[in-house]
Amino acid sequence: MVKKIVAGIDIGGTNTKLGLVDEEGKILMHQTVQTARYPDAEMFANEISSLLLSEARKIRNSELCGLGIGSPNANYYTGQVEFAPNLPWKGKVPLAQYFKDATSLPVAITNDAKAAALGEMVFGGAKSMKHFLFVTLGTGLGSGIVSSGSLVYGHDGFAGEMGHMIIKDQSNRLCGCGRYGCLETYVSATGLRKSYMKFLAERDKRAEEPPENIDAKYIFDRAQLGDRDALASFEYTGHILGLALANASALFSPEAIFLFGGLTKAGDYIFNPTKISFEKNLLKIYKGKINILSSSLQESDAAILGSASLIFNEIK
Question: Is the pTM of this model over 0.90?
Fold first, then answer.
C-alpha cells in the first residue's frame, strides 16, 4: 500500500525548517537551512524543492502529495508572501507558484500561526473540533481562527490577526505594524518584559540584571522566587489576554482556545490569570462552555506539522 506523505516548510527570518510528514503525523525527515543564504526567492524554491523531492524518493512505497508552506505575511488566496520585513525577499513574492513550477505538485501557503492552527486540528487536541481559536505566544502574538472546520481567511487572506487588535487606547507601546496599543505589545514575551520594566519603574526600583539580560525566562525565574514585580507582570499579561479572548469568543463562539508558544511554558503563572480574566469578562451565554487549553503539539514539531496540514486538510 502506498503511503501518502506531504512536505512541510516553515520559513523564518533566520532559518527555514522542512520535513516530510505521513498521515499519522510522523515526521520522516527533518532538516533546517538558513533562509538568508537565498537572496532570490525562486532559487530558494528550486533548491528546497530539489532537496525534498530527493528525500521523498528515498522513502519506499510513498507518494509525495504536495507541499505546505508556513511563512510570515503569506496570503493563502494569492500564494504570495507580501512585504515580509524579516525575509530577504522584498515586495510581493509568488512563492507558491515558484514551488509549483519546481515540483509540479499542489502547493498551499499561509502564515505560520494559521498553519499551526491547522496542525492542531489535523494532528493535535482539536481533532474532533470544528470551532476553535489557536493563539501563539512568542516574541509576538499570532493566531488562527477555525470556524466550521475551516480556517478563517477573510476576503483578502489576512483575517484572524488577533495580535493587532488595539487593546489599549492612547497607549505608548509601539507595535511592529506601526500602530500603538496592539494586543501583542502587551501579550507576548516582549510585552511581558515591557510590563515588568514598567512595574519596576513605578516603584523606582532597579532590576538585579542589566536590562539587556531581562527576558521572559528571567521574569519567570523571578516569579518563582516570589518577586512582586514579576508576579504582577504575569497577572497583568494574563488579565489582558483573558479579556481579549473573551471578546474574540463573543464573535466566534469557539469550543476551545489553544495557547501555544514559549510564554505558555510559564504554566499557571500565565494560565491562571488568563482564565480568571476570561471568565470574568465572558458573555454570560458562553460561561462554562469554552476551555482554555495548552496546545498538544510539540514546539519542535509544530511548524512542520502545521505546514504539512495545509495539504492533508485539502486532501481530506
Answer: yes
Q: Residue 206 has what pLDDT?
A: 86
Q: Where does 3-121+300-315 sit in CATH, by number?
A: 3.30.420.40
DSSP state of 289: T
Q: Which residues contact 7 (CB under 8 A, 6 or more apart)?
A: 18, 19, 20, 21, 52, 56, 64, 66, 67, 68, 308
Residues of the chain with pLDDT below 50 are none
pLDDT of residue 299: 86
Query: Which CATH superfamily groups domain 128-296?
Result: ATPase, nucleotide binding domain (3.30.420.40)
The length of the chain, given as a count of residues: 316
Give CA–CA dist 98/49, Å, rounded: 9
Cell numbers for 130, please give them. 470544528
Beta strand 15-22 pairing with 3-11:
antiparallel
Produce one character per residue of 240-271: b if its CB has 16 or more CB atoms within 10 Å, e if not: bbbbbbbbbbeebebebbbbbbbbbebeebbb
Task: Tell me how many degrees the CA angle 66-70-73 measures, rounded to the nearest 5.
Answer: 130
- Distances in whole angstroms, Cα of residue 104 to Cα of each of 18, 30, 63, 96, 107: 18, 22, 13, 11, 9
